[in-house]
Amino acid sequence: MKASWDIFCSVVDNYGDIGVTWRLARQLVAEHRCAVRLWVDDLRAFERLCPPIDVALPQQWQEGVDVRHWPAEWSPVAAADVVIAAFACQLPPAYMEAMAERERAPLWLNLDYLSAEAWVTGCHGLPSVKFKGVQKYFFFPGFQAGTGGLLREAGLLERRRAFQQDPLARKGFLAGLGVFAAPDARLMSLFAYENAGLASWLEALAADSRATHLLVPEGRILGDVQNWLGVEVLAAGAVQVRGALTVQVLPFVRQEEYDQFLWSCDFNAVRGEDSFVRAQWAGRPMLWHIYQQDEDIHLDKLDAFLELYTQGLSPEAKAALIDLWRAWNAGGEMAQGWKKLLEHWPEVAAHAEKWCLEQGSQPDLAAALVQFYLNWI
């Protein structure tokens, strides 16, 4: 298929929005031969994920994607065959006029936030508003049949499996990041928003009978880590030891490296949407810090996912996992929840791999978008 696509991304959550749209744009180009323009209003946030980006350029090519700076003052351009407003961002009024002026109206999609809530399957693919005859449709990523699926590149799970079965590949990758953990240490990653519950978790890890090597990429949680350690400055390259816990701060890595980073760890604490999905593809036990929303409506999304994710676990393992996730997302006490999860570690670890393979058997988001367009035309 050769169709033109415009993807609009307004960066509102540091890296989640651009993380999703950048992955999608590259996959549409690489696997579906689409011509993709990615419009981004914050190239500096984009630069963290794609270091070759020149933030001063209004237009540039990256990995086959036509990357455009989305300026405050819009210059007229022809509308594409498919137009994606990522996460309900508002398109430029002049661009909407260009859509209406096309001889054949484009397919206009609102690519919404990921959710496991039951109502999503009923709304996915339904028409939304119209603009001068141009119809917009809802498109929901999701975990169940009847949704748009999850972003997953071709061969991803096979590459992950080969990496995890190759100790030398893992060791070499970690060495490239400057990570040299003790052979018997539990390797964990921490990428989260600010969280009052972190101190109790770190205390539990420090007092554990087994060593833990905690890898913390630069990000918003770093201030809480710094406060617990009682140090004035904590930057990339820092290594601090407290009891059985070694804390190591890593520089922000590009997306491809972040996948291998998650694959390398025994447990991954992640946040937002993009890293949340990538942690699931790692097939390892995980903890999600969901983005907080007004009136705590994010907790409904959290519970909906937990209801799906914990199916098949024993009642005891299910309760341990749910209690830990809820405590983390409430900024609560983490020590007892972590201890309970460790009691069920073999079952939780096997379940994470099983969930990964189940999700991997479904169509991926990029393929679902392309099929939706083919059905539409």
TrEMBL record:
Matches recorded under InterPro entries: EarP (IPR016633)
UniProt catalytic activity: dTDP-beta-L-rhamnose + L-arginyl-[protein] = N(omega)-(alpha-L-rhamnosyl)-L-arginyl-[protein] + dTDP + H(+)
Keywords, sorted A to Z: Glycosyltransferase, Transferase
Domain of life of the source: Bacteria
Gene Ontology molecular functions: protein-arginine rhamnosyltransferase activity
Pfam families associated with the record: EarP
The UniProt record lists the keyword Ribonucleoprotein: no
Family of the protein in this entry: Belongs to the glycosyltransferase 104 family.
Protein function: Protein-arginine rhamnosyltransferase that catalyzes the transfer of a single rhamnose to elongation factor P (EF-P) on 'Lys-32', a modification required for EF-P-dependent rescue of polyproline stalled ribosomes.
Protein name in UniProt: Protein-arginine rhamnosyltransferase
Organism: Pseudomonas chlororaphis
